[in-house]
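pasting for ref
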Amino acid sequence: MTDLPPAFLSNRLALENPWWRGAVDADALLPRRDLFDRLFRAVHGGAGVVRLGGPRGAGKSVLVRQLVHSLLLTGLPAGAVAVIPWDAPALCGQSLETLWAALPPVETGRRLLVLDGCQHRPTAHAEAEALAAVEPGLCVLAVSALGGPAGADLVLPPMRFCEYLRLTGAEDDVVEPLFLGRSGRPGMYAVRDMAGLNRRFADYVAGGGFPAAVLLRHGGGGRMLRERVLDGLLRSDLPALCGLGDSAGLTALFVRLAGASGQELTVEGVAADTGLAKNTVRRYLDYLESAFLIVRMGRVHPAGERFRRMRSFKLHLTAPCLHAALFGPPDPDGPAFAALAEGAIVGQWLGSAERERLVFCRLAEGTVDLVGLSAGDDRPVWACTLPGTDGSMGDQSRINGLIQFSRLNPGLRWLGATTRSIAALRPYAMADGHTAEVWHRPAAHYCYEAGRRVSAEG
């Protein structure tokens, strides 16, 4: 495509960079996501390429505007910061070299270039690397709604439960920190109002994963998720850019997977249910995971070793509210809610280095839904059964798989089983004399604490 005149490009880029004319971007004043501090440290004073990924609607573009605002407050000249949206029709066909030349001239020194919407340009990351290599002091932030083969340095996931409570102004009403140790850092959080926390958790599962959807009241959030997040990733040009021509088949598969959230699946089983070829199912699953819509959790042997091939996997939505956007809000007392609550807990680790060390285990005695592996030797260090009811505490059969897993993997530092509202530490004995102490925790409380710990990483 012929490059547009420099004056035209400069005028168009000025629309995306209001700080060049001294204006404050309204998005910079919105509440910040927990990832903000890590992103600021990654780009402040650095050079090279930083890759930011996350699903559509998670707030990446708002995060970028907040980052720009904070960098300008440190004294960085306004002209040294530029955002180029690759999804803008007037800009997507232009070379990065041409767009770079159209930016305001600045003295040599520290600069930030944000390439937003990189999922629309297959060569975006290669172009970013090439530009950063020849421009001293330049940091390029490449923002994409697709993970891609190279992955991302930082991932902005759907909102964690703790972020949802903070955004809705309910956090201080339902939980309070317990300060442990001399560091003054809260290691645990007490529940002020268990019934209120459970109501908020049900609201989070039904519609709390995406900031814009939370801010839209009276049912508008579900429509936004369907039109912006799902349609944008399933029925736009993105599947074609990834070599997937049949968006209708992709959409049908995602709907089927959303209905099976929390279940153990195989590629062969999904292919048989949908009539799709196994290779097609694999490519669709890869795309959906790259688009941050699903999570596939691998399985470990009861003795704790990973399987060499992932023949089966547990399927979770990255945000359970996507299920509600498709099928309507789940009944908090129904089986669908239990599966989505499990996915909500797993989702707290998205964007964390620990995510790849989360697996599950299927035993004859029952399934252990969440097993954490050590970063050192890849061996189990803790295990938890999700989610349960208060009445299930008196039914040991529900956690026999957990107890058997602990017998086969001695030395686990923590065993857990979630409830609806009861917290208790109880010992359980098996016929062979093996005894295990299991922490029973309300699912909403565990989800909150897991999200707080992951958000504090880095």
